[in-house]
Amino acid sequence: MQVLATRRYPGPAFAELPDVEVLPLAALEEPRPGVGGLIAANEPVPFDLLPGLRIVANYGVGYDRVDAAECARRGIVVTNTPGVLDAATADLAFALVLAARRRVVEGDRLVRSGGWVGSWAEDSLLAEELAGSTLGIVGLGRIGSAVARRAQGFELRVLYTQRHDVETELGEYRELDALLSESDVVTLHVPRTAETIGLLDARRLALLRDGTCLVNTARGDIVDEAALLAELVSGRIRAGLDVFAHEPSVPPELLGLPNVVLTPHLGSGTRQTREAMTRLVVDNVLALERGEPPLTPVP
Ligand code: 8YV
């Protein structure tokens, strides 16, 4: 089966594809009826240019830009990469929790700018303690659970929301509004769907108590970005943001704010995780070629 990959995905597994062409979708001009497999990183599928598609193997767990309903109508299998990126994403969420809560980036800037003049930082960068505070996890799925396990080591009280009933020792269930008003730190781990776009709107952001830290490693537009900007510019809350509504563009208002830590969509960005994602993508394609069921089809 001819496979089109939108880039050379990292790791040795990529070389196991017997017939693969690397081409960004933007460079695809003529219809390519011979292509049966598309490997892409959460990119819209050009159905008209790829009329022979049998599988879209998404490099990532989130596939919100892939029209999965249209794929189903056309009999195209869609797969994603659940599980293999849980630890990396949970680690990055925790890095942002720690950085935003303990003012790590502000401290870094102070040192680099030559502004550190005393023998220790005295009161200028006093932060709020993390141990003993309450972490609200919005979406206790695979990644949210990995965050909850890390939270135990940091001696946090954990609250969580969840779509389905789950029996868990990892924390206490709350309705979303209650979780937002009870937490010192809130971290988002829901997929981007019609139900979650704008989930944290201006009303819900206003439920956060003064000084609360909001961490987003999920998708930018799960939070109303304009309302979030207003809260951050006012200095009322803090944030650690890895994702944005219109990546790679970041609202310029954020760039000068001391109460925000910004990273460029790094959640799954470790060598080991990215290679494991490629392994899973390739295994899904090879399974389909052999006439076997894909390993991780999307629901
Ligand atoms: C990817 C991600 O970097 O898995 C996801 O949902 O957001 C990241 O792992 C990105 O989606 C590219 O596929």
Structure description:
There is one protein chain. With 299 residues, this protein is α/β, with parallel strands linked by helices. It has 9 helices and 12 strands. It has a 7-stranded parallel sheet, sandwiched between helices. The chain has a 5-stranded parallel sheet with strand order 2-1-3-4-5. The two termini are 24 Å apart. The structure holds 2-keto-D-gluconic acid. 2-keto-D-gluconic acid binds next to loops.
Task: Output the keywords.
single chain; 299 residues; alpha/beta; Rossmann fold; 2 domains; seven-stranded parallel β-sheet; 12 strands
Structural class: alpha/beta
Give the helix level as a range of percent.
25-40%
- Could you tell me the radius of gyration in angstroms? 21 Å
* Global geometry: elongated
Termini Cα gap: 24 Å
Number of helices: 9
User: What is the chain-wise order of helices and strands?
Assistant: EEEEHEHHEHEEHEHEHEHEH
Name the CATH superfamily classification of the largest domain.
Answer: NAD(P)-binding Rossmann-like Domain
Largest sheet properties: 7 strands, parallel
Number of domains: 2
What is the quaternary state of this protein?
single chain
Give the structure's gist in a few sentences:
By secondary structure, this protein is an alpha/beta fold. The protein has helices at 68-73, 86-101, 104-112, 142-153, 176-182, 202-205, 225-233, 252-255, 271-289; strands spanning 2-5, 20-22, 35-40, 55-58, 77-79, 134-138, 157-161, 172-173, 185-188, 213-216, 238-241, 260-262. Helix 2 crosses helix 4 (142-153).
